[in-house]
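Format is sequence with structure; example below:
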Amino acid sequence: MSINNLEIKISNYFNSKSATHLKSLTTNIAIDRILFKNYKS
């Protein structure tokens, strides 16, 4: 949930053309957002 972790995921997205990788990336970001939201509240 750190900014650095998100940047790594974003750079991995740009470095990869794989559809399955994109799906797992968006899933991971969604999970991170949910966890971060719960963490903040």
Observations:
- The chain has one domain: 3-40.
- The CA atoms of residues 21 and 27 lie 10 Å apart.
- The longest helix spans residues 19-40.
- Helices lie at 3-15, 19-40.
